[in-house]
Write a structure and sequence with these properties.
The complex is a heterodimer of chains A (163) and B (793). Chain A has two domains: 75 residues, Beta-grasp domain (Ubiquitin-like (UB roll)); 70 residues, DNA polymerase, domain 1. Chain A has five helices and five strands; from the N terminus they run E-E-H-E-E-E-H-H-H-H. In chain A, helix 2 packs antiparallel against helix 5 and helix 3 packs across helix 5. The radius of gyration of chain A is 16 Å and the shape is globular. Chain A starts with a strand and ends in a 7-residue tail after the last helix. Chain B is α+β, with helices and mostly antiparallel strands. In chain B, 28% of the residues lie in helices and 23% in strands. Chain B contains 20 helices and 28 strands. Chain B has a seven-stranded mixed beta sheet with strand order 3-5-1-12-9-10-11, with helices on both faces. Chain B has a five-stranded mixed beta sheet with strand order 7-15-14-13-8, sandwiched between helices. In chain B, strands 18-26-27-28 form a four-stranded mixed beta sheet, with helices on both faces. In chain B, strand 22 and strand 23 form a beta hairpin. Classes of the chains: A alpha+beta (163), B alpha+beta (793).
Chain lengths: 163, 793
């Protein structure tokens, strides 16, 4: 079987995979990182979103082999070494942006990329459109949108999101 | 400490683990030596199985076993039981055909299990499943309600004539027909409640395990009610006594009703684990969720209201066809009867109501409770009919509601359809919602929208629901085969921390926080010192789980009763320690005091004495501070309220934007306002999904066309507005917390508010009703002057 070498949450792993093994299967089944979830089979729900080389990616839609040589960040690697939560995690908690928690890891990882990629500001409309690839069945998104808007200034070190 | 009791928007205790990837969902569980199951499902809506050849699959790499329905039958495995029996108009019991775990002889819907492959890996099992050769003889299908009741329709079950599961009614038909005959005005509406697919984000999963030494089985499963699964699967399917069967429902990623039921896969993995002496795991792919999770709604109804010359409702007459699907799911028969027809009084004093319901088998996935369960169907019908009454009589939509409301001083109010409402104030929720939605200023906004080329409309829905399910004796007399009480065990540990073991189950509702707040309120223990444990039959005395917004009203009350016992026992211990009479001991804010003195003992002093009983009234009192209470509710609870939707339709495309949505609900006492708001917002999102986007579509042959998230429109962030939520409280009068329930109100009140708004926006086009989902195509067709196409296009 082919081998993949990749860095996950700062730690390097070399793993044997089948050609058809998906990145999410590598993470969940080979590395035991079960925080990344699988919610669909058509690349629609976004529960599996991780960062690959700093950019959000649906890990159900990427072969493990395609991740060879990359650096992957999952929800487990987001908090600081001392356990302090990332500002996006904090704002999700503060604004009750999660209920059952199943979509949450992918939602948080997508949201961080969304904020990172909009340094000039992020409107509510941009947030809602930016979440197009992530489904939540519990919250109605209302509080997720609020949490992301609240995380923007914290992540960019500024007072408030530009409207 | 900060206030953490009843009424505080405490941030959730469970969030830290969910936010850091440390949730423990069923698919995250892997047991040593575990095998993987993959189920070969029917791709035929209706067919006889001539033969199943598993030879090649059994020889495939990694395969350990291949089983069919015949193998289960040879092991005396029972069918999946139905938990509710309805009786026909003539008193005879409903048709209750067998529901084999794996199909035997015939398949009855796309997705029906035909065989299971068990292998070293999921991929090996899936590959091998393709090698199973099934010789089907296709049969004509009854794919829809109308097809199934047509004369000469194909029979889903050979021994169920006309595909009628039951033909039930409530009310005095002769009296109501007479009222209609004498009415000044009769308003009639035919309407469909569209079939939905719940789609909790976590697909169902199950892991079965068997300990060959002890003979103990364990099932980890995505369930809203592990004790119910243990009861049904143990007693009826696999014949395993309760003491040998542990069911664990760990973190569960949303349910919305779809994870109440005992499903085939739970029995398959548990049975196979016993046969193979190795753990067996199954996780649904999303396409399997679409074709094996119980669907929701799916009614066709004719509704008629008789009115006097002044617009007073005189009588309501309803005839409904309700889809059961190919088999009876666990609670399917009660949804279109006792959770639907009994709600048809709504918030109105309509004196006479008659409803007849025919439940119909079709070649589709079984249909059962989905968020709201029967009550959204009743509310949609009633609130559309009331708007039609306003339309046909020329009365104002709000005025006709107000005029027919049950008065705020009329409680307790006995409806003509069995239920007795304990409390409510429908005028208050209506007034609050009209104000918050600036209803008075709407016509200005309509004109402004028109200037932009948009068709703007506003819709009102005033609703009631019944939850806090349910008094056991009442539901027993109506056909329930279970009691619906709840159980709480509360342990005050020696050093004063508390563990709550509840028979309810949290799959997003935030019980680990809300229930801890109850302990904080009553015992004065900070919530970080309170743990809430749920979802494990090995830890919790018993319980009926979470659905029908019952966890606080029933489960919370059980907790209150258990804490009352803790306090009563604590007073006796305190009286001994402080050498006072028990009657003089008071308990407040975590402290036992002797009235009129400065003597005080904390709850921790008392719990320590209870577990280290050196100075203790040992002759009168057992050591320990650990109490259990079972609570059977006295009545349902009756949340109600008003939802107002404001929409804009693009003339050129028919695309709808929900520009404002306000919900003012009476959910009884609010424990955690933040969580209540989130529950209502989530429910409203599902209601808007039903009204505008979602539809489970079968073609005429019984193939599921909306079988993936690429075909079935799940609401996304940019489909939804911000949702304004407020509460207007009357207390439930029959539970000590005064709570009613908030889990379903959003999904119940919102669909008619949306459709009423769309009909209002299109009133210039002569529209009186629009079927759900109101897709851009339907609306565009209306705008173009054509008739809207039928729902099952």
């Amino acid at each position: 079987m082919p081998q993949v070498t990749l860095t996950v949450n700062g730690k390097q792993h070399t793993v044997e995979v089948e050609n058809r093994t998906l990145l999410v299967e590598l993470l969940r089944e080979k590395l035991g990182l079960t925080g990344t979830h699988v919610g669909c089979d058509t690349s629609q729900c976004g529960a599996c979103v991780v960062h690959v080389d700093g950019v959000s990616a649906k890990s159900c839609t990427m072969l493990a082999l395609q991740a060879d040589g990359t650096s992957v960040l999952t929800i487990e690697g987001l908090a600081a070494a001392d356990g302090a939560l990332h500002p996006m995690q904090e704002m999700f908690r503060e604004h009750h942006a999660l209920q059952c928690g199943f979509c949450t890891p992918g939602m948080v990882m997508s949201a961080i990329d969304l904020v990172n990629s909009h340094p000039q500001g992020l409107t509510e409309k941009q947030i809602r459109e930016g979440l197009e690839g992530n489904l939540c069945r519990c919250t109605g998104y209302h509080n997720i949108v609020k949490a992301i808007a609240a995380a923007w200034p914290l992540m960019h070190g500024r007072a408030a999101a530009a409207e | 400490m900060p206030f953490e009791g009843i009424g505080a928007s405490v941030r959730r205790k469970e969030d830290a683990r969910f936010l850091s990837g440390r949730g423990n969902y069923t698919d995250d569980i892997n047991r040593p030596g575990q095998l993987h199951a993959f189920i070969r499902r029917s791709d035929r809506p209706h067919a006889r199985i001539n033969s199943i050849d598993t030879t090649a699959a059994a020889k495939a790499p990694g395969v350990v076993a291949v089983y069919t329905g015949a193998d289960m039958a040879a092991d005396n495995v029972g069918g999946l039981p139905c938990g509710w029996q309805i009786h026909n108009k003539d008193g005879s019991p409903m048709a209750e055909p067998p529901h084999p775990v794996i199909a035997v002889g015939k398949v009855r819907h796309v997705g029906d299990p035909v065989a299971v492959v068990i292998a070293d890996t999921k991929q090996a099992a899936k590959d091998a499943a393709e090698l199973i050769v099934i010789d089907y003889q296709d049969l004509p299908a009854a794919a829809s309600l109308r097809d199934a009741v047509a004369s000469g329709a194909a029979l889903v079950h050979d021994d169920v004539p006309g595909n009628i599961c039951y033909d039930w009614h409530i009310g005095d038909k002769a009296m109501i027909d007479a009222a209609f005959a004498g009415a000044a005005k009769v308003v009639k509406l035919d309407l469909t409640n569209n079939r939905l697919i719940p789609n909790a984000m976590e697909p169902r999963a199950a892991v079965g395990e068997f300990d060959g030494h002890s003979g103990d089985y364990t099932l980890y499963t995505t369930s809203q009610n592990p004790h119910v699964i243990r009861l049904l699967m143990g007693a009826f399917v696999l014949h395993i006594p309760e003491n040998k069967l542990r069911v664990v429902a760990p973190d569960v990623g949303g349910g919305f009703g779809s994870k109440i039921y005992h499903y085939a896969e739970e029995a398959i993995v548990t049975w196979a684990a016993g046969k193979l002496r190795r753990p067996v795991k199954w996780t649904a792919e999303r396409n399997e969720s679409f074709m094996s999770d119980a669907h929701g709604r799916d009614h066709d109804s004719t509704a008629e209201m008789a009115l006097d010359a002044n617009g007073n409702f005189l009588a309501l007459r309803i005839s409904t066809l309700a889809n059961m699907g190919g088999y009876l799911s666990t609670f399917a028969p009660c949804i279109p009867t006792y959770l639907y027809a009994t709600l048809l009084a709504g918030v109105y004093k309509t004196p006479l109501i008659y409803c007849e319901v025919k439940a119909v088998f079709t070649n589709t996935v079984p249909v059962d409770a989905y968020r709201g369960a029967g009550r959204p169907e009743a509310t949609f019908l009633l609130e559309r009919l009331v708007d039609a009454c306003a339309h046909d009589t020329g009365m104002d939509r709000v005025a006709i509601r107000r005029q027919n409301f049950i008065a705020a001083d009329a409680f307790p109010y006995q409806t003509p359809v069995a239920l007795q409402y304990d409390s409510g104030n429908y005028q208050a929720t209506l007034d609050g919602c009209l104000k918050a939605a600036d209803y008075a200023g709407f016509e200005g906004r309509r004109a402004a929208a028109a200037a932009r080329g948009k068709l703007r409309g506003i819709g009102v829905s005033t609703y009631i629901e019944a939850c806090g399910i349910a008094p056991s004796a009442v539901v027993g007399s109506l056909g329930a085969r279970a009691g619906l009480y709840e159980v709480a065990n509360i342990k005050v540990h020696p050093t004063g921390s508390v563990t709550v073991y509840t028979g309810t189950h949290s799959h997003g509702q935030g019980h680990e926080t809300t229930l801890a707040q109850l302990v904080c309120e009553q015992l004065g223990v900070p919530i970080e010192q309170v743990d809430v444990v749920h979802g494990d039959t090995a830890k919790i005395p018993f319980g009926m789980g979470t659905y029908g917004s019952r966890s606080l009203a029933v489960g919370g009350t059980a907790m209150v009763k258990a804490m009352d016992k803790i306090i009563a026992k604590g007073k006796k211990i305190a009286a001994h320690l402080m050498e006072a009479s028990v009657d003089d001991i008071e308990f407040k804010d975590n402290k036992f005091t002797v009235a009129g003195t400065d003597k005080v003992k904390s709850l921790t002093d008392i719990s320590l004495a209870a577990y280290v009983p050196h100075n203790y009234p040992i002759d009168e009192l057992e050591p320990g501070l650990d109490e259990t209470a079972f609570y059977d509710p006295k009545n349902f609870t009756f949340p109600g309220g008003c939802h107002i939707a404001e929409v804009e339709i693009d003339r050129d495309t028919g695309i709808v934007e929900v520009v404002n949505f306000v919900a003012v609900d009476d959910v009884g006492r609010v424990i955690n306002p933040m969580i209540v708001e989130g529950q209502v917002q989530g429910g409203v999102a599902q209601g808007i999904g039903q009204a505008l986007l979602e539809h489970a579509v079968y073609d005429s042959s019984g193939q599921l066309l909306s079988g993936s998230m690429m075909d079935y429109t799940m609401p996304r962030a940019d489909d939804l507005p911000n949702i304004t939520v407020a509460t207007e409280t009357t207390l439930c009068t029959h539970n000590p917390l005064g709570v009613k329930g908030c889990g379903e109100v959003g999904a119940i009140g919102s669909p008619p508010a949306i459709i009423n708004a769309l009909v209002d926006a299109l009133k210039a086009y002569g529209v009186r009703h629009i079927e759900m989902p109101a897709t851009p195509q339907k609306l565009w067709s209306i705008i173009q002057g054509g008739a809207p196409r039928m729902a099952a296009e």
